[in-house]
Write a structure and sequence with these properties.
It comes from Morchella conica CCBAS932. The protein is globular. It has an eight-stranded mixed beta sheet. It is about 35% helix and about 15% strand. The chain is of the alpha+beta class and about 700 residues long. It has two domains: about 140 residues, Nucleotidyltransferase, domain 5 (2-Layer Sandwich), CATH 3.30.420.40; about 350 residues, Nucleotidyltransferase, domain 5 (2-Layer Sandwich). Helix 7 crosses helix 17, helix 11 packs across helix 15 and helix 12 packs across helix 15. It starts with a strand and ends in a 40-residue tail after the last helix.
């Protein structure tokens, strides 16, 4: 067994798929050479920029032709992985494809067929570790995405370290996480003790395991807003402009969220001033009035929704109150791009403050579009900023400001008092985070220690943590779920294990359902009740298989008896007499002329009188097996998509979405949970070895 382990995760987003490769030492071997500090931390994960690769478009575009997703999309990503993972490690390298917002929007049938095709293609064309497609290939909810991001950010910043070295006050030592993409937005944070107790059922119970096998447990509030990513918000904004125009034949719609003079179609394409046909249709004309843009994007937050509690976020969604004295947030994805690609291009070491940021946005958006185009040609903001990026940034900045300060309630640094600290430099903030916590309540980041802050890192941390052998007989399952009162087996009914039973056996770990690690053994079930891939249901459900065997034997016996009765009295008699005669003659052994043993044959109807047997025509097994999807090595049958039998099986499956769209759980400790008085220390990843 190789000492170095690898994992490959495909982040299947709405616009493209990015593969991430991670490496770690085998936990049992890592223990032997670890220092005391390393033993009390989470396993060390290593990655590299060259190990990541992204291709376009997203897999959701294959919804109506899933048979093409393998050769036209996945093959390039699998090939990239094989270039960087040693050959002798491939069979033990887990492969995950976790899809996000784009796949959530597909119809159920298309989503199921596409996931099944991905599983089939991966199993037929690679040797990656893929024991349970229900766990490894799925659509994850926004809450799960946010939770993984929270794990990644705290791992890199040191938020899981010794509380005394990351004390934000009030016994708090973790960091909040904000993420915004094109379709959705997420927030994840651990409330203070008072709010955690008050809103226990709203929190997610998260369990991990340090390198020495000690359990680590947190209560995290996570929620998501589908349709609140920058692209979906822009679509809703344009719809509101159309509605306000009244449809009175007006073709020019003034848009304060565009630079002055920029003309766009309703779907965001720039219009040539000489294109008279396009100008005769409804289109947007930029006015560059940023204050008005802020005002017109505010209603999109839906803050006027019903709220039964004092603290509510976007759309009136209930949440624990955020204590910004101790809850310090990092924002990734659009939070970074929208604040830094243009407005902080020359100030990338400066942290976010609203007063400075808003002034820069206002200055940029009030410029004439032809002047901005000239600056783009001169690479004023670098080679990555093109016309499309510059045209969208005024709306994005307005939306981000409204979400941050009105929707979530982040203090307005630079406009409001935010505490005694006057530091505002990103480098100082990140350095301070490793010693005593963030100084400002919000900071946009892209990388920490040269490692991209990606939710995929959080997923692999949780996975590797589950491979660490437990410290003693008190085995706490690694994963997450609702913090409802535990069931008889000691876990909430919806608890999602970090890895499958088949993978745990590779590490000789207790299986879910065994002593000390009891729980729902079928962790491939999702929020809509869909079971895992039918291959896995038949062969990979651990202790369920022995209970299934007697039923199969009984079914075959009944089938044989029924067939025997249908043969008719005369044929039944002949067969019965043949069986009796065969039984007698089988005992009669005769030595042949050379001393070898031969057996006397009993002839039946259909044999030649001379005793010659009928000859069967030759059958080529290899080509047929390949055509129908038989995998000789694993003994796994993968029928081609579209066959009647498989469609019949798949038609009964619900869509496989990895986590509930609304995880509501609690941080209250239970009798089955370990004491959390001493949270172990973890370290950030080391740079990859050459």
């Amino acid at each position: 067994m190789p000492a170095e382990k690898y994992g490959a995760i495909l982040d299947a987003g709405s616009s493209g798929t990015r593969i991430h490769i991670y490496r770690w030492d085998d936990p049992e071997k890592a223990r032997k050479k670890a220092t005391k500090d390393q033993l009390s931390g989470l396993p060390e994960i290593i990655t590299s920029k060259k190990w990541a690769k992204k291709i376009h478009p997203g897999i959701s575009t294959f919804g109506d032709h899933p048979e093409d997703v393998g050769p036209d999309h996945l093959a390039k990503l699998f090939g990239h992985a094989l270039e960087h993972i040693p050959k002798d490690s491939i069979a033990e390298t887990p492969l995950f494809l976790l899809a996000t917002a784009g796949m959530r929007l597909l119809p159920d049938m298309q989503r199921r067929r596409l996931l099944d095709e991905i599983c089939t293609y991966a199993r037929r064309n690679t040797e990656f570790l893929l024991p349970d497609c229900g766990v490894h290939i799925q659509v994850i909810s926004g809450e799960t995405e946010g939770l993984y991001g929270w794990i990644a950010a705290n791992y890199l910043l040191g938020g899981f370290d010794d509380p005394s070295k990351h004390a934000h006050g009030k016994g708090h030592h973790t960091y909040g996480f904000l993420d915004m993409g094109g379709a959705s937005a997420q927030i994840a944070f651990a409330p203070n003790a008072t709010e955690a107790a008050k809103h226990a059922e709203d929190l997610t119970l998260l369990r991990m395991r340090t390198l020495d096998g000690a359990p680590m447990e947190f209560g995290v509030f996570v929620t998501t807003w589908l349709g609140f990513g920058v692209n979906q918000a822009r679509i809703r904004y344009v719809d509101s402009l159309l509605l306000s125009s009244g449809g009175n034949g007006v073709t020019e719609l003034p848009d304060p969220c565009l630079p002055v003079g920029l003309k766009l179609t309703l779907d965001g394409k720039e219009i040539d001033t000489q294109d008279l046909k396009a100008l005769e249709e409804e289109h947007l004309v930029g006015t560059g009035k940023f204050e008005e843009c802020l005002s017109q994007t505010y209603p999109l937050l839906a803050k006027d929704g019903p709220c039964s509690e004092v603290s509510c976020l976007l759309t009136g969604k209930h949440a624990p109150a955020i204590d910004f004295d101790i809850n310090h947030f990092v924002g990734v994805s659009e939070y970074w791009h929208t604040t830094h690609e243009i407005f902080e291009i020359d100030f990338k070491t400066k942290s976010y403050d609203l007063a400075t940021y808003q002034a820069r946005v206002k200055e940029f958006c009030s410029q004439d579009w032809p002047h901005i185009e000239d600056l783009i040609e001169e690479h004023k903001w670098g080679k990555k900023v093109d016309e499309e990026t510059a045209a969208a940034v005024c709306f994005k900045a307005s939306w981000l400001i409204n979400v941050l300060h009105t929707g979530i309630g982040i203090p307005r640094v630079g406009l409001e008092p935010t505490g005694s600290s006057k530091h505002n430099v990103t480098e100082e903030v990140i350095d301070a985070a490793k010693d005593k916590g963030f100084i400002n309540p919000f900071q946009a980041v892209d990388k920490i220690g040269d490692v991209e802050v990606s939710w995929t890192l959080g997923k692999i941390i949780l996975y590797v943590s589950s491979k660490v052998p437990p410290k003693d007989n008190t085995v706490m399952a690694v994963g997450f779920g609702s913090n409802t009162p535990p069931s008889v087996n000691g876990l909430p009914s919806d608890f999602e294990f970090a890895s499958s039973e088949a993978e745990n056996s590779l590490y000789h770990l207790p299986q879910p359902g065994q002593a000390g690690n009891s729980g729902n053994t079928n962790n491939s079930m999702d929020s809509e009740g869909d079971s895992s891939h039918w291959h896995d249901n038949l062969w990979n459900e651990g202790d369920k298989v022995p209970r299934r065997i007697p039923g199969i034997v009984l079914f075959l016996l009944i089938f044989c008896i029924a067939g025997f009765l249908l043969l008719g009295r005369e044929r039944r008699g002949k067969i019965w007499r043949s069986i009796i005669v065969s039984g007698k003659n089988s005992k009669r052994k005769i030595l042949g002329p050379n001393g070898g043993i031969i057996y006397e044959r009993v002839m039946e109807e259909g044999h030649d009188a001379s005793g010659a047997e009928f000859e069967l025509g030759s059958v080529s097994s290899s080509s047929d097996e390949e055509e129908i999807g038989w995998k000789g090595k694993s003994g796994m049958y993968d029928p081609p998509l579209g066959s009647a039998g498989v469609n019949a099986i798949r038609s009964g499956m619900g869509s496989r979405i990895g986590s509930r769209e609304r995880l509501q759980v609690s941080s209250r400790s239970r009798n089955v949970s370990p004491s959390r008085s001493g949270i172990p220390r973890t370290r950030s990843p080391l740079p990859p070895r050459n």
